[in-house]
Amino acid sequence: MDHKFAIRALLVSAALAACLVSGIPQAKASEKTTVKLVDAKGDDVGTATITFPSTQQPGVIVKLDVKGLPPGVHAVHFHQNPKCDAPDFKSAGGHFNPTNKQHGFDNPQGHHAGDMMNFTVEDNGKANVTVKDDDVTLGSAKEWNSLHVNEGTSIIIHAKADDYKTDPSGNSGDRIACGTIIQ
Ligand SMILES: [Cu+2]
Ligand SMILES: [Zn+2]
Questions:
Q1: Taking the model in full, what pTM does it have?
Q2: Which of 5, 49, 118, 125 is most buried per CB count within 10 Å?
Q3: Does any domain span residue 124?
Q4: 23 C-alpha to center of ligand 2: Å?
Q5: Which CA distances in Å does 79 have to 24, 56, 94, 100, 124?
Q6: Ligand lying nearest the CA atom of residue 75
Q7: pLDDT tens digits, residue range 12-21?
Q8: Does residue 59 fall inside a structural domain?
Q9: What is the CA 96 to chain-centroid distance, rounded?
């Protein structure tokens, strides 16, 4: 065995052993979770796949792959509780808001960390779109801006579009689909 290689291998295994002994988890390059969405009747309406590309800075990408929803423009937000009790999904609580702001990108006192841009459902009731949220992570339950904080959070689709300014939820109407984000 090459000398340098042997030393390097020794160092790597020593570092790994140290991690195992101390219980420090290995840092991951990215995180991803797929959330199942249900409507007010409890029927499956697709998924939201949340990707957290960098563990170094906040920002997640949300791929919505939904079906069976009313065509048109809809609001989508992260809400504070990991609870989707049909039919009204009120148990999900308000928007995820760890920085105590008001609602909306166009609100001078805004915006909630859980706020995202509207998306469109096509005439066939489907949408295959990507939205993003630059303010949250998929880190551990101990990170204040993580979607996994405490027991977790939820993602909700509303009946109407978000006006991006009316507190507390942008006049976006009923909650028509919900999914829990639990680690
Ligand atoms: Cu909402
Ligand atoms: Zn909001």
A1: 0.85
A2: 118
A3: yes
A4: 37
A5: 30, 23, 6, 13, 27
A6: 1
A7: 454 444 444 4
A8: yes
A9: 10
